[in-house]
Queue: 4 jobs
Job 1
Amino acid sequence: FPVAPEAEDEEKSLQLVESYLQNFYDLQRDHHPRLRRGGENPLTEKLKEMQLFFGLEVTGKPDLDTLKAMKKPRCGIPDVEQ
Amino acid sequence: YVFTPGNPKWKRNNLTYRILNYTPKMRRADVDEAVRKALSVWSNVTPLTFQKVEDKEADIMISFAYRDHQDNSPFDGPNGQLAHAFQPGEGIGGDVHMDEEEDWTKGGKGYNLFIVLAHELGHSLGLSHSNDPGALMYPTYSYTDPNEFLLPQDDIEGIQAIYGQSTSAVQPTGPVTPEACDPNLTFDAITTLRGEIFFFKGRYMLRKHTARTETELNFISLFWPRLPSGIQAAYENIETDEITIFKEDKYWVIRGYDVLPGYPKPIYRLGFPKTIKRVNAAYNDETTGKTYFFVADRYWRYDEKKKSMDHGYPKKIVSSFGKIGRVDAAFQKDGYVYFFHGTTQFQFDPRAKRIVQQMKSTSWFNC
């Protein structure tokens, strides 16, 4: 069956979030599954860092305002030290 | 402002640049001009100088590139990442790469080459991204008319912290990004718009919906690229769903994102005498359909249906509205008129014909 549009959107949004945080907020590209040692999900942590930088509400979630900011055309240089 | 980690900087003030190739989307002369102007943004406020060289290595090599261009940072096609640059240093250090697949222009359409170049040169000189939304070194693109561009104060302070002040006798200063809860905040103009309130200041607008706590800060150009910055008066005609914007002796009529054709027009079409050079503030009374224009210590009244000024005007502001002084900005909401004079705001009841409350100019921002 065709994927429901909402689920497809969600998949796209997640890809956008991940690649944005990898490009500009030094989110490590996880090539090898690792045992999680507790603590916050790195993606959530980086998302909060990005929301703080852009003066967005720091939710740690890819909410509408955050996705809107990520879709804006921008400079290719990261916002944080790589 | 933020320095690039490790505080890299050029050891000399006299730097060279070279344009390696040109985008076919702009005339060569326009690309040269955009590069020259972008470099002057930084040389105007520091001791730095930039000399153009041909056919040899320069400190700053500027080029247009496609996708993977052998620097480990491939471009991503139209939109997204527009350009990148390298911190000061030998070889690739200082170089600027523009994504050739972007729609480079010298105006408000597509991406303005001058604006993006000026930002990237900030990296070439040792600055990283600033989180000041009004700074040139803010990471996301926003258009400003190059003829009106002024390097913001945040960027001036950043680059001077690296290279020192300009050698000119008068030190340049730049616009500061307005902050909603700044007690000294004053406004150029204010209007309601489809249930929201827009507060204009310089090239910015603070957008407030009374049902939301936070205030949104945007460039005026984000919604209306054809409008100038520094507008002086604005009002909404709810009946026609239009706002009218004033600057000096011109006015624009806007509906949604569109500036209606044929604008700007001279304010004299509205019936102002030729002696009037600008309008300070305006508001439209939704119940009577009359628009009030404030100029210095007087005001006019305009009939939106007859499209002409009412007779018997101008009148003295104090005679009809009390001691509110000169009006910087005004708007009407829920039957009350709000007059702004500096950092003071007066709430006026047109039924009782008197001021019913005095507040601070920032009272709408939940500070």
Note: The first helix of chain A runs from residue 5 to 24.
Job 2
Amino acid sequence: GYRDINDIDINMNDPLFTKQWYLINTGQADGTPGLDLNVAEAWELGYTGKGVTIGIMDDGIDYLHPDLASNYNAKASYDFSSNDPYPYPRYTDDWFNSHGTRCAGEVSAAANNNICGVGVAYNSKVAGIRMLDQPFMTDIIEASSISHMPQVIDIYSASWGPTDNGKTVDGPRELTLQAMADGVNKVTVLIIWVLGQNGVYMLELKTVTWEHNAFAQIIKLSPYFKVPLMFTLQYFGIDFIATTDLYGNCTLRHSGTSAAAPEAAGVFALALEANLHLTWRDMQHLTVLTSKRNQLHDEVHRWRRNGVGLEFNHLFGYGVLDAGAMVKMAKDWKTVPERFHCVGGSIQEPEKIPPSGKLFLTLTTDACEGKENFVRYLEHVQAVITVNSTRRGDLNINMTSPMGTKSILLSRRPRDDDSKVGFDKWPFMTTHTWGEDPRGTWALEIGFVGSQPQRGVLKEWTLMLHGTQSAPYIDQIVKDYQSKLAMSKKEELEEELDEAVERSLKSILSK
Amino acid sequence: RGAVYSNHFLVELHDGGQAEAERVAAEHGFGGVRKLPFLESGYFFYHNGLAKARRRRSLQHKLRLEKDSRVRKAVQQEGFIRRKR
């Protein structure tokens, strides 16, 4: 269904536009032609982010920058640590506080003005929420920042996190979690978080950092790999991004890791313009249904289909975002049915993890069938795990669903030498069983991967299921019969029919 | 390597609105107060007379707030590291 890249007729006079390969990838900068966010198609359909505001939670925005000034939302900008309504980046000798300005350009830089490049949603507004220009953070600043003017800010973009040293296990604190929950539940806000750095030893860490609260409301993404995620953007060694820079300048050297969040925020802004009623759950469904495998490939981790046929990859999630497909689907999207939560079962007897081989446990669940909170169509699944070991970084945890989908919950983290803390009720999360029927037997495998023999004890495994009772796609309008939506809807219809026949047969037999 | 404590306090009141919170803050020497929108009766107090970062807790301020009958909970905020990506 892809169009030839040469058919795209987008001409911008901004000097860095041709270098922004993630917008339109023609193979520039050693990139792979076509491996981009397909924003050109969304632009051609008329979606450019009008009426959408993105909060850049960072070190301020150069709101005098000629490429940003017209799209700056001053009223929604603030700094809570200094109570400053004008969060211009504070001066440093090394321009270190250029990060927020660079992120702002990636999402909202004006188009066709002959300055720097073009934002993914070049008619959207950006608000500067200054919070990162100080040596440390507090929970109350983080929480205040992420809850600032949710009636105005539609999407919060965060390109930061805990220290990525390969062993830090940290996440949002109590107030921040409350603020996030409040934002996504009371007001329709979307939080986009970029995970991790690009260091070799940090890759695996990402599985557990911001994941630790299994914050399903956040759309997590990684520019690099090895995270059970909704999706990824990927850069394949093209590490730097062209965007706006401090003091009215442009740069070709913004970190690709940081750019992942504002670029995704830009894509979601385009979808929001197409349909302002989308909730964070709608957005996640749209992401699963429209993300593309494109040309993403890994020799070790091959693409697989989950129990309902959705193609996923352990490293790339559901693939790369496709803005064109997303706006087309978003336009006619009907909000998905209510979500329910079910504790699928729990094992709380201590079990030794062998130094070689694996501890294998199973848990059979009815997914709360017959109760009010029955979950039939999965969205997120959490495995709440308490485990201690002589080396936390050597632990390897996999979980397999009743429909046979294997999710990697934790892989090896060579720098993590913890032998005391372990994981205490840590909610590992997977989205790779999306759409599956959770009823049946789940399996958990825990083992060690490393050069030295290790010992460990699993103390708890609780299965938490989150999803809908009714089929989420049955009422959606299908326009593309080759799409994942069409396939999922067909699957749902067949399953509903099978279950109706089964119920009728049972009823007849009982009579 | 040890903990760092800030001049930010989370203060939860039993009842009363912004005006009550401002009175409590002023009486205890806090220069600013801000309502936390996601927390009922929750306020962000900041004290301009305290260092922005210090190694020791400001027990005096915390205890004084806790002894105030209008205050349900007072927590001095610990600092932690966040890195730009």
Note: Chain B touches chain A at residues 4, 6, 8, 10, 32, 34, 36-39, 44, 46, 52-53, 77-85 (CB under 8 Å).
Job 3
Amino acid sequence: SPVPAPTATLVRVLKNSNTLGIAIEGGANTRQPLPRIVTIQKGGSAHNCGQLRVGQIILEVNGISLKGQEHKDAARIIAEAFKTKEKDHIDFLVFEPGL
Amino acid sequence: VSKNPQWVPVTWVF
């Protein structure tokens, strides 16, 4: 059977709780070059949106590419996207390997 | 021996 083409999905996470609640691993210069979701905290905005899943790789945050971003910078970009008052949501472009 | 370190950093974003 054909190998499923990897798909990128745009997920909008509404800021409907005071925490985002995701743990990410990886970043530039690690064996996981793009940040991958490893945990989602129950009750956080990420969990509430229902579309983010452990294992998804985050390609972009609000249109900002995470390609080449070191781990701490990728985490900072995500944290700032959640903290900013300019938007009531965060748009994640995620990629689900092998889906 | 691989260039990238084997451990992978993990951070919580609250």
Note: Chain A touches chain B at residues 19-27, 29-32, 38-39, 41, 44, 71-72, 75, 78-79, 82 (CB under 8 Å).
Job 4
Amino acid sequence: CHRKKAKDEL
Amino acid sequence: MNIFRLTGDLSHLAAIIILLLKIWKTRSCAGISGKSQLLFALVFTTRYLDLFTSFISLYNTSMKLIYVACSYATVYLIYMKFKATYDGNHDTFRVEFLVVPVGGLSFLVNHDFSPLEILWTFSIYLESVAILPQLFMISKTGEAETITTHYLFFLGLYRALYLINWIWRYYFEGFFDLIAVVAGVVQTILYCDFFYLYVTKVLKGKKLSLPA
């Protein structure tokens, strides 16, 4: 799987 | 939010605070690369532009604001307030050799060809190499103050913990971000040599000095 970035990470 | 992610964030915060306190308490930024700190300020600025476009959580927003504010405060202390103590003669890494290729790469390899996304990608790539001026400075002078090594240790630990966080998220959430992972691996590898010296010297009470 190649998902988009985790928006919640810093 | 898993434990590795949280301790990673706290380790990052610890690094930033240690550096600020070191400069503030000693009234000196000797041995600190202003160039690395400028790059980190640029990293936070370009990455957290999403503060204006999306809200994730109170934790997320406050940490971003703290990181940005602290990085600007650090740059201010180095280049303005305690400028006289800044060791510019030893801070000679050519940052354009980092910023230009990283800028080019973020245009070529990103998740989405939009301004915010390219700037986010730029910040991820730049963060992975932003410590190089600091490591270069230490290799030039051949030594680092112990408090500076604590700063570097927590800064390196933060990305290492994020790597474990990404493995965790891959298995339990099916999340995988190739850009962040590759940059995070590069970033962590850059600290390996330093980690070795930290464990073998600093933790045994010796000062970090490199053989001439």
Note: Chain B touches chain A through 24 residues (CB under 8 Å).
